[in-house]
Amino acid sequence: MSQSDRAEKVRHLVDGAVAGDVRSVSRLISLVENEASGYEEAYSMFYGRTGKAKVIGITGPPGGGKSTLVDKLASKLRQLGNRVGVIAVDPTSPFTGGAVLGDRVRMQRHNADPGVFIRSMGTRGHLGGLSRGTAAAVDVLDAAGYDYVLVETVGVGQSEIEISSLSDLVVLLNVPGLGDEIQIIKAGIMEIGDVFVVNKMDRPGADRTKAELEYALDLGHELPRRPKVLMTNAETSEGVAELVAEIDDYYGWLRDSGILEKRRAKHAELVVTRMLADRLMKRLGSEGEDGELAGELYVCVSRRLLTPYEAAERIFKRIIEKGAI
Length: 325
Known about the structure:
This protein has helices at residues 3-18, 22-33, 39-46, 66-79, 132-143, 163-166, 183-187, 206-220, 240-257, 259-284, 288-302, 308-321, and strands at residues 54-59, 84-90, 116-122, 148-152, 169-174, 195-198, 229-231. It is α/β, with parallel strands linked by helices. It has 3 domains: 1-47, no CATH class; 50-257, P-loop containing nucleotide triphosphate hydrolases (Rossmann fold); 267-321, no CATH class. It has a 7-stranded parallel sheet with strand order 3-2-4-1-5-6-7, with helices on both faces. Helix 1 (3-18) crosses helix 3. The longest helix has 26 residues, at 259-284. 36% of the residues are buried.
């Protein structure tokens, strides 16, 4: 295929996605997620249309009911006239490389609704729990005119903190009766939450969980506006309307205070830095002498013969020697 034919094909795909064609949106996400031929041209065509969607990260411990809550949030947002994109981030299968789907079958009832787009994506082993393709998928849905993009992560823990760099606002979910009093306090990630939710509010201990979260927030949250702790029962939709209202209210405060703009700048820094690192390593090469050198350096670091900084410096010098930068 000639360069002009490829550009025309990419243009047609982008135009379809921007116009709201669901199939085009899906294909465009696949293009940028897999960095297939033409993905950079595609990005340059649609990126100027991004920045309008409200990107909401939703995380919490496994078994907390995140998928059910996301399903009910999507329904409520649709009732209010919004278009909703959902990105469900799953662990990547070690056998197929694809996403291992959790309890997401219930979300399929939205399939007949063109105003809801759902995509499961694998982490692909990325330590932060989010692959590069996740940010790209958010941008595609943003450019395609979705008012809200809900990003549901695989779980909660130190490796999930990256969700705060991708999202405009983070909903941190917990439930009573998971063993420890407050799972998210133990995980040490209270600082990433903007809105806190105690789901399964009908369970014994829900009020205690709410009180303990509020106490922890009174002690240590750094933002000038302390987040609220809401109660929901996602199975019955109880509290979901209040959660949507609080998300919108808190989002408005983030925007008006200038914090939202700073968060988006930080996200841009993260994405650009990661892409730069990836390109430099690709220039170095994974095979031949370069690959052998890198492999030897990794072994030396693992055996404590070199520090990670020394290994990085040697790789950097090799990149410079090759004229990659």
